[in-house]
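During the reporting period the student researcher (J.K.) took over the structure-prediction task from the postdoctoral fellow and processed the backlog of single-chain submissions. One of the processed entries is reproduced below for the supervisory committee.
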Amino acid sequence: MTAELEYTGLMALAWDALRGDTSGWEDRALFLELIEELGQPVLDVGCGTGRLLLDYLALGIDVDGLEVSPDMLDILRAKAVTAGLDVSGRVHLGAMESVILPRRYRIVLVPSSSFQLLTDPEDARSAMRRFHGALVPGGTLVMPWIDIPKDYPDGGDEVLERERTLPDGSLIRRHCRGWYDPVAGFEHTDDRYELLRDGVVVREERRLRSPAVRQYDRAVITALHEAAGFVGLRFLSEFTHEPARPEDRIITTMARRPGTA
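J.K. obtained the following structure tokens:
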């Protein structure tokens, strides 16, 4: 089952600041094209602080969100108020592998490779069944996947440090070390977050995620879709309509629930 709740505390507070401007991210454009082609309503799984959900709502798209972290949803709701957007009844707190939603969708999106946070195989199978049940007949599941080993070409640790100034003038800093176990197929991360005011650390949190995410190869991805009852599985190259290539770091899958709405 899913381990301790992630994306809380300083990790949630730092989320938007450390990612910066996401309006030009390529997934946003692809998903918009698919929504225009395949229809609405849309479910944004792992909606976080509302990167896509609030953007799409502002465009008049009928979109709901699912998020496991109450801290992330608190930030999303505050941003919605600032933007003059009504998210009442649209955002649901729950885990992708266990939630039961009140309506069905034409498209279920699982952006940012969030599915790979499911490191337990039974959780992964359960989530796929939930996605299938959340779609209307003929609806489409869309998910990007990261080929994690490509981030560790030399097999060593990856270390990064980032910091950003928050709107209140405080500074948020993240130091992260990541490493990949090719035998188990897990990436592990050790994060330290610091919140500074006037150069003084006023809050600090460490987040050791071991494992953090799981590698899913294309054979396993295919088996998960088939076991859940999906058909017409396609592998796309990154966030394009082109067929996936062996060298792609990111692929996007599309598959349908059988039937017609």
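The committee noted the following: The mean pLDDT is 95.
J.K. will present the remaining backlog at the next meeting.
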